[in-house]
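To whoever is on call:

I kicked off a structure prediction for a single chain this morning and the downstream step that reads the tokens threw a length-mismatch warning. I double-checked the sequence; it's 338 residues and nothing unusual in it as far as I can see. Pasting both halves so you can look.
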Amino acid sequence: MSAEYATFGLAPAMRAGDVLANGAYQVHRDFVDFLVDGRPLLFRLSDLDAVSPLASDIPPAIFTEQVRGLLLEAPAPLPDGRHVIYGCPECADLACGAVTAVIDRDGEDYVWRDFAWQTDEHADLELGGYHGIGPFRFRGAEYRQALLAAEAQGGRRRVLLIGARVAVLAKLAAALRTIGIGADIAHDATDVHADELRAYGAVAFGRAVTREERSAVRRAFEQAGVQVAYVDGLAPIVPLLVAQIENALDRSPVEQRRLTRLVAADGEAGVEVTSPCRVRLTAYRLDRLYRSHVQEVFDGILEPGRHRIALDAKAVRGESFVVARTTGSVLVEAMAPR
């Protein structure tokens, strides 16, 4: 079975959740992505909104079953020896579409071949085949070692919310829970047991929380030996705060992200992407009466590289903020004053 050797690895990744202006939402998903020659395999599949079957929110027994399947220690879930490589991030239903491939053993090696997009039990390689991807031959020891260590890639997805505006915190907690991120509200972290603190991946502070109060929270986590990401809330705008927390929970290596840079100044946004992808820019602002406003200012496909995008002057006047999103990355920046 001919195929050139490729390196195999795994890395934490996420499908970013979102709270949309019309009340709809998309679910947050943490998962382990496949690295082929050091680059996420998902990036070779255009701008596909999908996750691997190695998701952090599935039960441990199911996670182990997925690993055994990829190691060919369990029967293939689809006919013709096909395995789901990426599926729907919302429901994992094959009817929504999935990227599948045949996985074979060749001596000690594992070979992934015949990649295809399919929506039912049988793949049509003529209509749905990814003809420019694979086959990939992976050395057995490297492949097995990465998959057997996959469970150690899991991460915490709860967030501790600390602030003075209870109504805003309650709305934020509800929005986070809606997209699949656990959230708790507290005044501080004093006297909280270390085992409870270990459940959190991030702490978000409201703007009214003092420096002394923030320092006390940080000390509590440090004394418990727990490392978390800290988020300083930019404004009491729930979708903006959700975006900040999504960014803080992103555990993927920076060099393996699609969206790597966002600058907001002089009525423009500077964006850098590493592979072709859809990028959405949303502007949030507070007016003089402290009312929030939101406007979608860009939605399009960008090629790899740096881009400068002019923004609607009305959308970014006064105290304003810009959120950049791809399917797997979120960046947030305050608009620098002119």
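Update from on-call: the warning came from a stale cache, not from the record. Cleared it. Sanity check on the structure: Residues 8-153 form one domain.
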